[in-house]
Amino acid sequence: MTALGFTSFVGSPGATTWTMLVSSALTARMASQGPELGGLxxxxxxxxxxxxxxxxxxxxxYADSLFTYAADTSQEPSWRNHATQIPDGQNLLSSTSSxxxxxxxxxxxxxxxxxxxxxxxxxxxxxxxxxxxxxSPTLGALDQLNSVIVLVNxxxxxxxxxxxxxxxxxxxxxxEVGWAVVGKNGQPNKAIKQYSEIDVVLxxxxxxxxxxxxxxxPNNRILQRSALMQEADKFAQTLLQVQQxxxx
Length: 248
Description:
By secondary structure, this protein is α/β, with parallel strands linked by helices. The protein has helices at about 15-35, 55-60, 65-70, 100-120, 155-170, 190-195, 210-215, 220-225, 225-245; strands at about 1-10, 40-45, 85, 90-95, 125-130, 145-155, 175-180, 200-205.
């Protein structure tokens, strides 16, 4: 029902990390709330970063399930027949470590795949788009997503200016875009919105220990108690509430 992409225009900070955290929080909430969610039953983490797989390799998973799903020629292909699970229970469609192979796949199939993810009424898709630039193979497919969230460092005026200009130059104006600002010190949300005319929808805390713990033992205490996971859970709760309201 919802397909949400996370990206940045300056390389960092951490679109992959945040994508994983949101997907993990959604998975946990769906497992605990179950029927309360009124048909919203599954979350899916998708690697669509042209730079290649990061999530799967971090967990030493060598499946290329995004490729096998894209190649599924059945009348109604299901991602469920291709996804793998990472240790904390998240469903993952992974790419490969070859940027060339991933770029070719996304150039030929991203629009169709994103449309399929967005049309699944029981699914909330969280997509790692990696770093966007003028040659990114997913640029023409982003209008299939419900929204794109751009990560930017609050403390860097140059990053904010660069990312704002990139959004206006590269993205279709029909695409719903929001900021995820990283860090506490720097431009206030009001100033960022006033300059860019884009809402700040997420505030991501500086939490290096929480970020490092993400790839350690699943559900470890450091991660679960981290400021990052708490913020991801708040965002997941809000996202599910919005989707429930649409279903009613």
